[in-house]
Structures are given as C-alpha cells and as structure tokens.
Design brief:
Blueprint (H helix, E strand, L loop, with lengths): L2 E7 L4 H15 L6 E5 L3 E6 L7 E5 L4 E10 L9 E3 L12 H11 E10 L6 E5 L8 E5 L2 E5 L17 H9 L14 E2 L4 E6 L2 E6 L3 H5 L7 H22 L2 E5 L4 H12 L5 E8 L8 H11 L2 E6 L23 H17 L3 E4 L3 H5 L4 H12 L3 H14 L3 H12 L21 H9 L16 H9 L17 E3 L5 H9 L2 H4 L7 H6 L6 H4 L8 H10 L1 H9 L2 H4 L5 H9 L6 H21 L9
Length: 615
C-alpha cells in the first residue's frame, strides 16, 4: 500500500533541521522502498509503495505544490462542482508567499485522495493540507521543532526517539460514542489533520486552519429544484466513477445488493473506460442476512460476473486480533478479519488492481434522521403547506406520528449545538462502561468536532448530514499485506459529496424515501426491486454466533484486559453479560465484538509503544 512521510521544520533552527535529517536517514535505512522525493530549506518528503499513475508523488504548480496519492483536476475550476478530468494538473510556474493560501486554491481546483505539501517561493515555509474526502490518512506529531506528517503509524515505530502513549480519556470517549472523530487520537502524541484542513509551520508555531468546510458548501448554490438536483447528482456521480475507473482496468466490486453498491455498479457499467468488473457478495444463514437475490438482480442488469461467498461463524478465529495493524486510533476489526484476505485473493485471481465499495453512500445520500430534515424545513421556511408534505415524508421513513415529529422539529430547528457529540451520539447502550468513564467522555469538549464551532449556521439535519461524513473511510486495512489491491470508495469523492451537501435535507427525504435524490437519479439504471427497497440486510445474528464460538477468548481478552484495568469497562457488568450469553442478544453481542473487543485489541497492540522499539 502507498505511504508517505513528510518532515517540516523551522528553516532558521539548525537543530530541528538536524533532527529531521536523522529521522529521514533512519527511514531510508529500512530499505530501498523508501525514496526521498523532494527536499527544501524547511522540508523533506519520502514515499513508499508507489503505484505509477495511481498513487504517487507529483510536483505541480511550478514546483510549489507536491502531492502524494491520487489527484484529479476539475474541468470547471470556477464552478465548485464542475466536471472532473483525471490526470496531473498543468504546471503554471506559479509560486506564492503564503502556503496556506496556495493550499486553499489547490483544494478548489482539484479533488481525489491526496495529501499536499505546499511551499513558498524560497522553499523556506511549508504547509501540509489533506483533501476534503480524507480518503488518504494524515497524522501529525510535533517533536523537537519538527512537524512529522505520515499516513501509517507503523512507519514511525522504531524511529528513535519517537514514543507513543495511550490517551485513556479518548479511549473512554470512543467506547461511549462509536462515531467519535476529531483532531485527537488514541495516542497522546498524535493528532489527525482533518479532511480539508491545513497545518502551516511558521517559525516555531504550527497554525491549523480549515480550508474546506461542509457548512460553507451547504450554503453555496443550494440546489432547491428537484430536477436540477437529480441531474447534477447523476452527472457528477458518473464523472467521479469514470475518473476512478480510468485508473483501474480491472475492478473487484463489493456488491451487497443495497442501493449504494448498486448505484456504483450502474456507474461502473456505464463508464466510458469500460473496466472489467467482477462483483463479490456475501451471505449468511438467517433473517435478513441473505441478500443474494438483490445482488443477482444488479449483476444481471450490469452484465457482470458475480461471486457469492458464505460467512460462517465457525471459520472466524479471533486470535488474529493480536496482529491488527497499529494505528493512532482503534478501528472495527471483525469485518476485515472475516473478509480481507479472501477479497485480496479474489482480486488477484480476477486481475483486479482495486477493490471498489459503495461504502459511505448512506452518509452522502442521506439515510437516517428524517426528523431533522423536517426541522431544517421549518427553519428555512417556517410553517405552510409544504411543511405537511415533509412531515408526511418523515413519518413514512421513521414510523413516528406526525404530531411527535412536528413537536420535535419545532424544538430542534433553532436549537444551537452543545456538548461534544451534538447530533451524532450513536452509542445506545453505555451500561458496560464505568460511570466515571461515561461521565468524563460526555463533558470533555476535546471530542467536539471543529466543524461544530459555528454549527448553528446550518440546521440540525444538514449538521447531522455533514457530521455523518466526518469519519473517513479506511485506506489501510487491519490485516493487509504488501501487494494487496487498493480499496476505493468512489461515492465519497469530493465533488459528489459537495453536490449532496448542496441539496436541502427535505429534498433528500422527499416522497418518504431515504436517499430520495439518489434513487431518482438512477431509477432507470437499477432493477425496480432495488430502487424501491427500504430495508437493509444485516448479519447481527452472525456476530452473536461468532461471540459464542469464541467465548473463552472474548472473556480472557475483556475481563483480564486493559479496558477493565484502566476503568473504562465495568468488570462485574461485563462478566454478567458474558456469563450467560444467548444468541437472542444480538445488539449487545455486536457491540462487544465490533467496539469493545476491537478497542481492546488496539490497546494491547499500542500499549508497548511508550518505549523505543524496533520493528
């Protein structure tokens, strides 16, 4: 997989420059895969795992911008949502005295999956910026006057004298709120550069600023007309998928049979670059766990091959959780544990250079919180006949009464955001956490996303829409190996995200359908059974069976683990929960497996990083 390592320091501080040089030497001593691609008076950058034409370093804008990853240039730069074309931007020999301003201009003119190093004319000042999709990770460590920017924590481990320690307050917050995502990470020494954010080194200071903000996008050129919104969404979705498919002649597409993955398949089969697409779908025995009928309909409509694989609890050994990739924050490891190696092998077998997924489509197209869309409508227009149509739509989606929805909408429409989580607290069963851990996580504003500093300027529905997009898709998998194909999430492409942010939330639920504009945009390309599908498949029962099959391992991991020792999980309640588990308690079992066990595995892997260690 592609990785980068960027060092920025004060050009007037010789000691920080010497320290940066030592770090670079240690990195390159690990092998020829690490190439130094650019250096200046205050910066140096390295890359590994380059895939020419796909994920790579490139000098642009007359050498003042260095990109790492995948970059596309917008065809209509003046239009924030214009068409897109693939390929490197043309050098215009332009330099700037302010790297942050140049970075802002670059974001407006490009999109993709990248991090950019932006310098001034003298190469003595530099800034790092992450593209608004956030699909390529970017983490920061400030040590000895050097800003260390990297994509993969594994590359930092063993570089002396870098050490890392777990932030248990963050861990408690992550256990309480599974959607937590902000600048803080699970390691005290590491912060994340957020999507659309810039960090500029100015002497001894590091100044951080948001160059892209979803609320700005949502308030620009709002798509109030349904026909216009549908046409724009369809056009931009196809352009984005075309751009990604041009890079990958062979694609393994994870096709669930749901709306999002089926829309992506429709775009792939219509792409002018004609990639060879093989689809993969999973199924399991049990209610709502077998979606093959929908996947087969979509694959038949697209004229592509479909591979079907059964997920069984007996084949899942949780012992591999001891091998998860070390990262600045915990992930969710059960899904990659079941699927990752199988998908990599199938990609190689089919000749695919990438694995595509419709992941993120639920958030982009707006699934959920129809009640907040009604609040947005009241906020924008007040009362009136149109309010009734939106209320009926919200009632159809949520199953709630119109009266309760209207009462809640009146209460929420002008309610200013408060607290660290606001609209996105998804954890429903915090009872296994200790009271102290839950209380500290609830009140600590460190977990408040920076977007919410001016959150009252948009309605609660659009705020929820934006925040649901905050956690980026994973670029590195927990168990990946060298040579594995890249994972691509085309529905999270910046131009498509921006189009959907510009569509008011009441349009996104119109007619009583979630993701209403996406359904309309691709109705002619999808089987009717999928375009009109409301329910999503689920494999909750499979999680229960996996837990029951691995119960001794789960008990040892959690009851004797770090989360209990550090006062995050309540041992007695956890022991009671694991003492007499039943397959019927699916929600609790999946919470334990997907969240607590994953966090415990991450903590054990990272607990030894407080001391310098070799690789």
């Amino acid at each position: 997989m592609y990785r980068y390592f960027i060092l920025i320091w004060n050009a007037h501080d010789p000691q920080s420059g010497e320290y940066a040089g030592r770090l670079g030497q240690q990195l390159q001593a690990r092998g020829p895969q690490w190439q130094r691609v650019v250096t200046g008076n205050s910066f140096a950058a390295y890359q590994a795992g380059e895939r020419t034409g796909v994920s790579e370093w490139c000098a642009r804008e007359g050498g003042s911008v260095h990109t790492f990853g995948t970059v596309f240039r917008r065809a209509g730069v003046s239009d924030p949502n214009g068409g897109v074309t693939n390929g490197a931007s043309q050098s215009d020999a332009r330099h700037t005295e302010c790297p942050a301003d140049a970075a802002a201009g670059f974001i407006r003119a490009h999109w993709g999956r990248y991090v950019a190093l932006v310098t001034d004319a003298t190469a003595s000042r530099a800034a790092i910026v992450r593209d608004p999709s956030g699909m390529l990770p970017c983490y920061l460590v400030n040590r000895a006057g050097v800003l260390i920017c990297f994509s993969d924590l594994e590359d930092c481990i063993g570089l002396e004298p870098l050490t890392f320690s777990i932030d248990w307050d963050y861990v408690a917050a992550a256990a309480l709120n599974c959607a937590l995502h902000t600048r803080a990470t699970g390691l005290k020494e590491v912060s994340e550069l957020l999507p659309g954010e810039c960090a500029e080194v100015d002497g001894e200071r590091v100044r951080r600023s948001l160059l892209w903000h979803p609320f700005d996008v949502a308030q620009t050129a709002v798509l109030e007309d349904t026909s216009e919104a549908v046409a724009e969404l369809r056009s931009i979705a196809q352009h984005c998928v075309d751009a990604w498919s041009r890079l990958h002649p062979g694609i393994l597409h994870c096709l669930s049979g749901g709306l999002d993955s089926s829309i992506l398949l429709a775009c792939l089969t219509r792409s002018r670059y004609r990639p060879v697409v093989t689809c993969l779908t999973y199924y399991a025995p049990g209610r709502d766990a077998d979606e093959r009928v929908f996947a087969r309909l979509a694959a038949h409509r697209g004229g592509v091959a479909l591979i079907e694989r059964e997920l069984v609890a007996a084949g899942v050994g949780l012992q591999r959780l001891h091998e998860v990739r070390r990262s600045p924050r915990p992930g969710y490891y059960l899904t990659p544990l079941q699927r990752q190696r199988q998908e990599a092998a199938l990609a190689h077998w089919t000749g695919a250079s990438a694995i595509f997924s419709g992941g993120g489509g639920d958030a982009v197209f707006y699934q959920g919180r129809a009640d907040l869309a009604l609040a947005d409508r009241l906020r924008r227009f007040g009362g009136g006949p149109s309010r009734c149509a939106v209320a009926f739509a919200a009632a159809r989606i949520t199953g709630r009464s119109i009266g309760s929805l209207l009462l809640g909408a009146v209460r929420n429409a002008w309610l200013a955001p408060s607290g660290p989580y606001v609209d996105l607290k998804l954890q429903q069963q915090p009872s296994l956490l200790t009271a102290a851990a839950a209380a500290s996580a609830e009140i600590d504003l460190r977990w408040r996303h920076p977007w919410l500093e001016d959150g009252s300027r948009v309605g609660p529905g659009k705020r929820w829409h934006a925040l649901s997009l905050a956690p980026p898709a994973n670029y590195y998998d927990a168990f990946d190996q060298p040579g594995d194909p890249e994972r691509v999430y085309p529905l999270l492409s910046q131009p498509l995200v921006e189009v959907c942010l510009r569509i008011p939330t009441d349009l996104l639920i119109s007619g009583g359908w979630d993701r209403a504009m996406a359904r309309r945009a691709f109705a002619s390309e999808l089987p009717a059974e999928i375009a009109q599908r409301r329910a999503k498949g689920g494999i909750d029962h499979l999680g229960s069976r996996i837990l029951l099959a691995n119960l001794p391992f789960v008990r040892e991991m959690l009851l004797g683990g770090l989360l209990v020792r550090e006062g995050v999980l309540h041992r007695e309640r956890l022991e009671q929960c694991l003492g007499r588990p039943s397959e019927a308690d699916q929600t609790r079992h999946n919470q334990i497996l997907h969240e607590y066990l994953s966090i415990e595995a991450w903590a054990r892997r990272c607990a030894g990083l407080a001391q310098p260690t070799g690789r």
